[in-house]
Write a structure and sequence with these properties.
Oligomer: single chain
Structural class: mainly alpha
Amino acid sequence: GGGRSGLMMELTTTARAARPATGLPAALRPLWLAGLGLLAALVVMATPILLAELQRVCEGRLCLAGQVHIQQLRSFAALGISLATYGLLSAGLLASSAAAHLAVAAVIIWRRPAEPTALIGAGALAMIGLSSTGYSVIISELGPGWWWAAFAIDRLAVLLTTLFFSLFPSG
């Protein structure tokens, strides 16, 4: 008795989960995923610039987050860490973090394309992943017209995160 009804409930739940999502948000799934693909392409394009910046000593007052200041150079030398090694490891960690944010956002959009909470959360996650790792600053260095993309990433990170926590305070 109980085993059979449990199996039926599991099959019903599986069938319900397997149904394709419908409605406007679901129809926008390819657009959301294409946007994440564009962000991933920007990360790939900006990573060599990030690596070069992290392997260069900062001599001014304002340095890129993670960039070694000239006053820290002696500490690195005492530890036996070259600037090239530090830059490579740092850029690798930052690129991995940005990629992880984008991948998780893509999975959320793929699995829950019809849920506004999921879409807002995935968008916030993607933008925070690029903004918090410094990629938005590096993207602005891709060329003269790229400042708008960096500006949009930073503003969308703040807007979507604020929207998410304002509309869904319990998550």
